[in-house]
C-alpha cells in the first residue's frame, strides 16, 4: 500500500505540473517542456524544448527560444534570443584550488555562482558553454562549441575555447544605431511592420 500511495502521489504531481504548463501556455503563449521549472520567469511567446532543463533561478525574455538538450541555470536572458541545442549556461564548476576537485570536499555545499546576463537578440550556437558571471551584449553571436569565460561586447562574433573575437557583425556606426533603436523593445506589431529594416539595418524604420 505504501508504494501505491507513493506512485499515486507522484502521478498527481505530474498531472498538476502539466495543468500548470497548459495554463501558462494559454495565458502567455509560452511552451515549455517537462524539465523546465514552473518557478522560472518566462516572457510572452517563449519556447523551451522538451529535453531542456531550466532551473528556478532563470528568466527568459519575450519570444526567445531554446533548443533540445540544453541546460540553463542562474541566468537572465533577454528578448528574441536564439539558443541552439546542447547549450549550457552557468553550469556548476569544480574548485581547482582545493586539494581535490571531487565534491567530497564540499561537504554537500555547492559553491556560489555569479549570475550570467544575456542581452537581447543574441544567437547562441550549438554546444556553447557560458561560464558563471559572464555578461553577453545585445546582438552577440556565440559560435558553435565556444566556451565563453569573459564578457562579450554588443554585436561581437566570438568562437573557440576559450572564446575570442572573430569579427564584428557591423561597423561601429551601425552598432550604435541598432543599440539606440533597441528594436527588441518595440511592440510586436511594430516589429512585423519593420521586416525590411530587420533584414537590412540601413533601411529606415516605420
Describe this structure in words.
- The chain is of the alpha/beta class and 206 residues long.
- The chain folds into two domains: 2-169, 3 Solenoid (UDP N-Acetylglucosamine Acyltransferase, domain 1), CATH 2.160.10; 172-206, no CATH class.
- Helix content is 23%, strand content 20%.
- The chain has a seven-stranded mixed β-sheet with strand order 2-5-8-11-14-16-17, with no helix packed on it. Strands 1-4-7-10-13 form a five-stranded parallel β-sheet, with no helix packed on it. A five-stranded parallel β-sheet has the order 3-6-9-12-15, with no helix packed on it.
- The longest helix is centred in the first third of the chain and has 27 residues, at 2-28.
- It is globular.
- It starts with a helix and ends in a 7-residue tail after the last helix.
- The model has no long low-confidence stretch (mean pLDDT 87).
Helix and strand arrangement:
Layout: H1 2-28, E1 41-42, E2 47-48, E3 53-54, E4 58-60, E5 65-66, E6 71-72, E7 75-77, E8 82-83, E9 88-89, E10 116-118, E11 123-124, E12 129-130, E13 135-136, E14 141-142, E15 147-148, E16 156-159, E17 164-168, H2 172-181, H3 188-193, H4 195-199
Parallel strand pairs: 1-4, 2-5, 3-6, 4-7, 5-8, 6-9, 7-10, 8-11, 9-12, 10-13, 11-14, 12-15, 14-16
Antiparallel strand pairs: 16-17
